[in-house]
Specification:
The structure holds 2 protein chains of 2 kinds. Chain A is an alpha+beta fold. Chain A has 11 helices and 8 strands. In chain A, α9 runs parallel beside α11 (348-383). The longest helix of chain A has 36 residues, at 348-383. Chain B is α+β, with helices and mostly antiparallel strands. Chain B contains 15 helices and 19 strands. The two termini of chain B are 23 Å apart. The chains are: A alpha+beta, B alpha+beta. Chains A and B meet through α5, β6, β8, α7 and α9 of A and α4, α7, β13, β19 and α12 of B.
Chain lengths: 396, 604
C-alpha cells in the first residue's frame, strides 16, 4: 500500500454522532448569544448591528484635508453647517494623509425638518390655501410645489433664500395649468465643503475622495432584501438537495445553513464590525460554500447506506463523517487561509468580507458534521425504518 | 483513449491560447506595456477587463421612478377635465370635484338630482381612463377611479421612458462604458471613470426633468433698450459683451418688428452681466432673459462656422409645455435642406397652440428645451390643427441631424412623465481605490502562495497538477471577464476578493478527487483503476457542490448592484471555470501519467 502524507490517518475513528448533545448545546448557546446580542447592541451601542451607511441610510464621505485637522473641529464645523451628530473616523491610506471618514444622517442639503419649515414659509408667503401640494421626497435633491394660481420663479427663490436654502434651479413643471414648480437643490458635497471650510479656513478641504449617500427608505429596503435574498438562497439550495438526494436530506441542510448565517451575523454583532452589503454577499458565499462539505458527507452517507445494510444508520453516518473528515478539513483549510490573508493584509470592505468568510468557513464545516448529519439521523429514525434505504449509490 | 486524449489536449490548449489572447490587452494595460503590442493585435483584440468604479473612480446613482406621482398627476388632470365637462357641456349648476388617494376622483353635486348628468354617455369620453367606482344617488356623490390597466400601463411606460431619457442624456456625456440598468422601478446609472469635478454637473443633467417650453418673445420692449445702453457702458468690465439688433416684417400687416439683444462668445459673460444688475436695472419678475447659440453670418448673410450666444427677452409664463405633445418626428426640409422636427399636440394642446399663435402673430415664439432656446421662429399666423414645425438652426449637417434625432427623442418621451427620485449614490475619486488594490494584490499573492505550497507538500506531483489547474482557472476566469461586455462584467474590489476566493476553492475539487483516489489505492486498486474510479465517483459530488455555490452566486447577482454584482459575476464565472479545470483539465494530466506513461504508482 502506498504511503501518503496525511494530516489525519486513514484508520482514525472519532465519535461524532454520540456527542451530538454537546455540540447541539454549543450551537444553541451561540445562536442564543447572537439573538441576545442584537437587543443588547441596540440599547448599549445604539444599533443592533453596526450597519454601514448603505444599509442604514445617510451619508458616508471620505474627505481629504490639506493639512492635519482635529476630529473635534471637524465635528463642530459639520454641526455649524447643519450636519449634526457626525461620526468622524480617521481614514488610513498612504496615498491620502489627513483623511477622515465622516458619517452623518443627512443625504441632501435639506432634511425633512428643513422641508417642513420651508413648507410653512411658503404657506405664509402665498397663502395657506394657494399652496395645494408640497412634495419633498426624503433624500431628494429636489422638491415640487403646486399652487392654485401662478407663482413666479422669483417668489419661490425669495422664500428659499429667506430660509437659507441654496438651490441650483427652479423650473415650471408639468402643464401650465398645474401651476407646479420644481426646485433643484445644491449637491451635498458642496454644502459639506462649505461647512468645513467655514470652520477650518478656506481651502481646508483638499478633496472629497468618495461619497456614499443612501436614503433611509432605500437602506431599509436593502436590509429587508438582504434577509429575503439569504432565505431565497437557502430555499433554492434545499430544493436542489431534495431533487438530488431525498427529502430526509433537506431539513438538515436548511437548518445548517440558517445556523451558519446566524452565527456569522452573531460574530458581527459581538465584534461590532461594520455590517455592509459586502457582508451580505459574504453570508451568501458562506451559504454556498458551507454546502460543499455537507454534500461531501451526505454523498458518502448515501453510498455507505447501500454498502453496509446490516449497520445502524447512526453508525453509518459516523463512519461516513470519519471517512470524509480529511477532505472536509483540507478543503476548509485552503479557503480559510486565503481569506485569512485577506483579513490580515486587506483593507476596508475586503477585510470585513474576509472576516465573515473566516467565521463562515469554520461554522460551515462544523455545521455539516454537527447539525446537518444529526438531523438526518433523527428524520431517518422518525420516518423511515432505522436501516436506511436502498437507493443506488453514486458518491465519493 | 489515445485518440480522445489527443483531442482533449488540443481543445484545452486552444482554449488556453484563446484566453491568453483575450487577456493580453488587459495585462498590457496594467503593466503599462500597451505600446509594445503590435498594431495588428491591438486592432483586433480590443476588449479589456473593465474596472468597476470603486477601483477607477466614478459615479453610481440609483434613481426611483416616482410612478405614483405620474398616476396622481394624471388623476389631477382628469379631475379638472371632468369638472369642466360637467359645467360646460352638461350645464351642471354647482359641483365640487375633488381628489383622494392616487387614483380616485370624487364628484359632489350640490343638487343630488343633477348626479344623473354624469351618465354613461359622458363616461364614454373617458372610457380609456376612468370608470365609475360607486354612486350615492341620494347624496349626489359619485366616486370615479382611474382604470387599473391604464395605471399599470402608465407605470410601466413611466419607467421605460425614464430609462430611455437617461440613456439619451448619458450618451451625450461621452463617458466610456456607461451602464444603465433597470431594476423594478429603480434605474441604476453607473459612470466609471467620471472625474469628481464633473459629478455635480452630470447629476444635475441626469436628474433634470426634460422640460420643453414655448414662450413668447417680448420684442421691442423698453427694458431691453435700457439694458443694451447699460451693457454698452460696461463693455470693459465684461469682455466680449456686445449689443446687436434684429428686425423682421410681419407678413399679414407688413408691420416692422425690431429687437435689441445682447451677445457674447461666452454665455457666462452675459449670465454674469445679468446676474450683477442692480436696482431698477434688474430683470422684471414677470420676464426672463434666455439664451440661444447661433451661427455668425458673413457679409453675404451666409452662416459661418463661428458661433455666439444671444439673448431673448421672454415672458416668464410658458404658453405651452412638452406635456401637451402627443407625437413628434423629424425629416429634412426639401427647400432649405435643413432638418426639421414636426410636433403633434393633443386636443388641449392644439387649442392652446391655436390661441397663442393667433394672439401673437408677428412675434417670435421661443422653443426652450432644458433651459436653452433651441429656436425662436416668427409666428406667421394662427396655427390650427395641432401641428407645428421646428426648423433647427445652424451647424454641420450631421450635427443638425443628430440634434433633430435627440429632440424627437426628448419630445416623444416628453418631459419625464414621472419625476426621478434620488435613492442612493456612490461617488468615488480616481485615486481612492489604488491603495486597496495594492493591498488586495499582496494578500492574494500570499494566499495563493500558501495554497500552492500546501498542495505541493501534501500531494506532491498531483499537487502540481492541481496548481496548474488552478492557474488555468484564474486565467479562464479573467479571460471571461475580459470577453464579457462592460455591462455584464466589471472587476470591482469585492470582485478581487472573489478572484482570491476562487484560488482557495479551485483546489477544493482536486482535494475531494485526490482523497477519493487515495481511498481507492488503499483499497488495493491499480494506479489507473484508482484514477478512473476517483474521478468517476467524485464527479457528482464536485458537481453538486458547484451547483449549490452557483445558486448562491446567482441569487447574489439578482440582489446586488455595483460592486456586489461585480463580485457575483466573478464568483459565478470562477465556479464554472473551476468545474472545467479541476475535473476535466487535471484529468488529462492524470491520463497522461497512468495511460501514456503507464505509471504503476501515483505521486499523490
Amino acid at each position: 500500500m502506498a504511503k501518503f502524507f496525511e494530516l489525519i490517518k486513514a484508520d482514525h475513528n472519532f465519535e461524532f454522532v454520540g456527542r451530538q448533545r454537546l455540540f447541539f448545546g454549543l450551537s444553541a448557546f451561540l445562536i442564543i448569544a447572537t439573538v441576545a446580542m442584537l437587543p443588547i447592541n441596540h440599547y448599549w451601542r445604539g444599533a443592533a448591528l453596526n450597519f454601514s451607511t448603505e444599509l442604514r441610510g445617510g451619508t458616508e464621505m471620505t474627505v481629504e484635508f490639506s493639512k492635519p485637522a482635529e476630529s473635534g473641529a471637524i465635528r463642530d464645523g459639520m454641526s455649524a453647517g447643519g450636519f449634526h451628530d457626525t461620526e468622524v473616523v480617521p481614514f488610513k491610506d498612504d496615498a491620502h494623509p489627513n483623511s477622515y471618514i465622516l458619517r452623518f444622517g443627512a443625504v441632501s442639503a435639506v432634511n425633512s425638518d428643513g422641508a417642513t419649515k420651508l413648507e410653512q414659509a411658503l404657506r405664509e408667503k402665498v397663502g395657506a390655501e394657494v399652496l395645494r401640494k408640497f412634495e419633498f421626497s426624503e433624500g431628494g435633491d429636489k422638491f415640487y410645489a403646486r399652487f392654485s394660481k401662478p407663482i413666479t420663479v422669483d417668489d419661490m427663490g425669495g422664500v428659499l433664500k429667506a430660509q437659507g436654502i441654496s438651490y441650483s434651479t427652479i423650473n415650471t413643471f408639468g402643464r401650465i395649468e398645474d401651476n407646479q414648480l420644481e426646485v433643484v437643490l445644491v449637491g451635498l458635497n458642496l454644502e459639506v465643503t462649505k461647512a468645513l471650510n467655514t470652520k477650518l479656513g478656506e481651502g481646508a478641504v483638499k478633496a472629497i475622495l468618495s461619497s456614499d449617500s443612501v436614503g433611509a427608505k432605500a437602506g431599509k429596503e436593502l436590509r429587508d432584501n438582504g434577509i429575503t435574498t439569504v432565505l431565497a438562497a437557502i430555499l433554492f439550495i434545499m430544493l436542489y438537495i431534495l431533487v438530488r438526494f431525498d427529502f430526509r436530506y433537506g431539513p438538515g441542510t436548511v437548518l445548517a445553513l440558517l445556523h451558519d448565517a446566524f452565527i456569522v451575523v452573531g460574530a458581527f454583532a459581538i465584534t461590532y464590525k461594520e455590517f455592509s452589503l459586502t457582508t451580505v454577499a459574504a453570508i451568501l458565499t458562506v451559504i454556498g460554500y458551507s454546502m460543499n462539505d455537507t454534500i461531501v458527507v451526505f454523498d458518502r452517507i448515501r453510498e455507505n447506506v447501500t454498502k453496509y445494510r446490516d449497520k445502524r444508520f447512526d453508525r453509518i453516518v459516523n463512519a461516513s463523517i470519519n471517512e470524509t473528515l480529511s477532505r472536509t478539513i483540507l478543503t476548509a483549510a485552503t479557503v480559510f487561509f486565503v481569506t485569512l490573508a485577506m483579513n490580515i493584509w486587506g483593507t476596508g470592505t475586503i477585510r470585513e468580507f474576509a472576516f465573515a468568510m473566516n467565521v463562515g468557513v469554520i461554522v460551515g464545516t462544523y455545521s455539516s458534521i454537527f447539525i446537518a448529519a444529526p438531523i438526518l439521523i433523527w428524520l431517518n429514525e422518525r420516518f423511515f425504518k432505522p436501516q436506511g434505504n436502498t437507493k443506488p449509490s453514486r458518491a465519493s | 483513449m489515445e485518440r480522445s486524449w489527443t483531442y482533449r489536449v488540443v481543445i484545452y490548449l486552444m482554449l488556453t491560447v484563446l484566453a491568453a489572447i483575450g487577456l493580453t490587452p488587459s495585462l498590457a494595460g496594467w503593466f503599462g506595456q500597451e505600446d509594445s503590442l503590435p498594431p495588428w493585435f491591438k486592432k483586433h483584440v480590443t476588449r479589456k477587463i473593465l474596472l468597476g468604479l470603486d477601483l477607477q473612480g466614478g459615479l453610481h446613482i440609483v434613481y426611483k421612478v416616482d410612478v405614483d406621482k405620474a398616476v396622481s398627476n394624471k388623476a389631477d388632470r382628469l379631475a379638472s377635465e371632468v369638472e369642466e365637462r360637467l359645467k360646460k357641456d352638461r350645464k351642471v349648476s354647482s359641483v365640487t370635484v375633488g381628489r383622494s388617494g392616487n387614483d380616485e376622483i370624487t364628484v359632489q353635486f350640490r343638487e343630488p338630482a343633477e348626479a344623473k348628468k354624469l351618465d354613461l354617455n359622458m363616461m364614454k369620453t373617458f372610457r380609456r381612463d376612468l370608470f365609475e367606482d360607486s354612486r350615492d344617488a341620494d347624496k349626489g356623490f359619485v366616486v370615479l377611479k382611474v382604470d387599473s390597466d391604464q395605471i399599470d400601463e402608465m407605470r410601466e411606460y413611466a419607467v421605460r421612458q425614464g430609462v430611455e431619457t437617461i440613456r439619451n442624456r448619458v450618451d451625450k456625456l461621452a463617458v466610456a462604458e456607461p451602464t444603465i440598468i433597470r431594476k423594478g422601478s429603480d434605474i441604476i446609472v453607473e459612470l466609471p471613470g467620471l472625474k469628481p469635478e464633473d459629478f455635480e454637473r452630470v447629476k444635475k443633467l441626469i436628474g433634470q426633468t426634460a422640460q420643453l417650453e414655448f414662450r413668447i418673445v417680448d420684442d421691442g420692449n423698453e427694458y431691453m433698450k435700457k439694458l443694451s445702453g447699460v451693457a454698452l457702458t460696461k463693455k470693459d468690465a465684461y469682455p466680449g459683451l456686445d449689443v446687436a439688433h434684429d428686425g423682421w416684417t410681419q407678413k399679414d400687416t407688413q408691420a416692422q418688428h425690431s429687437d435689441v439683444y445682447l451677445k457674447a462668445k461666452d454665455r457666462k459673460v452675459i449670465e454674469k452681466f445679468v446676474a450683477e444688475l442692480e436696482g431698477e436695472n434688474k430683470v422684471p419678475p414677470d420676464h426672463e432673459i434666455a439664451f440661444e447659440e447661433v451661427a455668425d453670418r458673413d457679409d453675404f448673410g451666409a452662416e459661418t462656422q463661428d458661433k455666439f450666444w444671444r439673448t431673448y427677452y421672454l415672458h416668464r409664463r410658458a404658453e405651452l409645455t412638452g406635456e401637451y405633445i402627443s407625437d413628434s418626428d423629424w425629416n429634412v426640409d426639401q427647400q432649405s435642406f435643413k432638418p426639421e422636427v414636426s410636433l403633434t399636440f393633443d386636443r388641449k394642446g392644439a387649442d392652446l397652440f391655436e390661441k397663442v399663435s393667433g394672439d401673437n402673430v408677428g412675434r417670435k415664439m421661443a422653443i426652450i428645451l432644458d433651459q436653452k432656446i433651441t429656436s425662436a421662429p416668427v409666428l406667421e399666423g394662427k396655427i390650427g390643427g395641432g401641428r407645428a414645425r421646428i426648423t433647427l438652426g445652424g451647424g454641420s449637417p450631421e450635427g443638425m441631424k443628430q440634434e433633430a434625432i435627440d429632440l424627437v427623442a426628448v419630445l416623444r418621451t416628453g418631459a419625464l412623465p414621472a419625476p426621478l427620485t434620488w435613492k442612493s449614490e456612490n461617488q468615488v475619486g480616481p485615486t481612492l481605490g489604488r491603495d486597496a488594490v495594492d493591498k488586495a494584490k499582496f494578500s492574494m499573492a500570499v494566499g495563493s502562495l500558501a495554497v500552492i505550497l500546501f498542495m505541493l507538500l501534501y500531494y506532491r506531483l498531483s499537487g502540481l497538477i492541481a496548481n496548474i489547474a488552478m492557474v488555468l482557472n484564474i486565467l479562464f476566469l479573467l479571460a471571461i471577464l475580459a470577453y464579457l461586455p462592460g455591462s455584464a462584467a466589471t472587476l470591482t474590489l469585492p470582485g478581487i476578493a472573489g478572484v482570491v476566493l476562487t484560488v482557495g476553492m479551485a483546489v477544493d475539487a482536486n482535494i475531494i478527487i485526490y482523497e477519493r483516489i487515495r481511498e481507492e489505492l488503499r483499497a488495493g486498486k491499480s494506479a489507473r483503476g484508482a484514477v478512473e474510479a476517483g474521478f468517476g465517483r467524485a464527479f457528482w459530488t464536485v458537481f453538486d457542490a458547484h451547483v449549490t455555490n452557483l445558486v448562491a452566486g446567482i441569487v447574489l447577482f439578482s440582489y446586488g448592484t455595483g460592486p456586489i454584482r461585480g463580485f457575483a459575476v466573478t464568483l459565478i464565472a470562477g465556479i464554472i471555470c473551476n468545474l472545467f479545470t479541476s475535473v476535466w483539465v487535471s484529468r488529462v494530466m492524470f491520463d497522461y501519467m497512468v495511460g501514456r506513461k503507464k505509471a504503476a504508482t501515483l505521486s499523490i
